[in-house]
Amino acid sequence: LCNGGITMLIEFDDTLVTGNSTIDEQHKELIKRIGNLITACEEGDGKVNAIKMLDYLDEYTDFHFTAEEELQKKAGYPDYENHHKKHEEFKETIKELTEYLEELEGPNKDFVDKVKTEVVDWLFRHIKAADRSVAEYINLHNNPDIV
Fold first, then answer.
1. What is the DSSP letter of 49?
2. Higher model confidence: residue 112 or residue 6?
3. Long-range Cβ pairs for the range 50-58 (8 Å, 24+)
4. In Å, how far are 24, 100, 106, 130, 131 from 64, measured between CA atoms?
5. What's CA 142's distance to the chain center, in Å?
6. In a 10 Å sphere around its CB, with 0-12 CB exposed, 13-18 middle and 19+ buried, how is residue 126 labelled?
7. For residue range 74-90, what is the model confidence (pLDDT) as tens digits?
8. Which of 34, 64, 105, 108 makes the best surface tag, with the fewest CB within 10 Å?
9. Does the model's pTM come out above 0.85?
10. What's the first-to-final CA gap in the chain, in angstroms?
11. What is the 3-state secondary structure (H, E, C) of 82-103?
């Protein structure tokens, strides 16, 4: 086991709800794919499967960020540029993790720790702050009478 046998539970919970059903559904899928990556590491599936899971995560990340940014543009979200920049940084992190993993024998404890801090922790913080404010803005934009 690449992380000493400690199972890391990654799941979508109420603290991650933004209130926008499209964004929330996509976040559930994103978190499921991160969980699959970590499970592949923990079960010692080896490098090939871990790289496959990372690619799978990368693909969905692109899809989700594009969809979320389209919603922002449509609603005229004022902090779009900054939010987009954060997404680009995250995509770069995934690429760096792929390069890092390609140089290893297989996913080790350091790799799992990096996934935990640079993917899981980052994403959960991003959802709870940035994405929640996007969802609130879109909700107000779509329902101007609720102010």
1. H
2. 112
3. 50/101, 50/106, 50/107, 50/111, 51/98, 51/101, 51/102, 54/94, 54/97, 54/98, 54/101, 55/98, 57/30, 57/33, 57/94, 57/119, 58/91, 58/94, 58/95, 58/98
4. 10, 24, 28, 14, 12
5. 26
6. middle
7. 999 999 999 999 999 99
8. 105
9. yes
10. 52
11. HHHHHHHHHHHHHHHHHHHHHH
> Encoding tokens for residue 62?
């692109």
Return the structure tokens found at 143.
């329902």
Per-residue pLDDT reduced to its tens digit, 7-35: 556 889 999 999 999 999 999 999 999 99
Tokens of 23: 């964004």
Which DSSP symbol is given to 138? H
**Those residues with Cβ within 8 angstroms of residue 92's Cβ, 6 or more apart along the chain or in another chain:** none
Return the structure tokens found at 41: 């590491």
Asked if 127 and 86 touch (Cβ cutoff 8 Å), the reply is no
**Tokens 């770069």 appear where?**
92
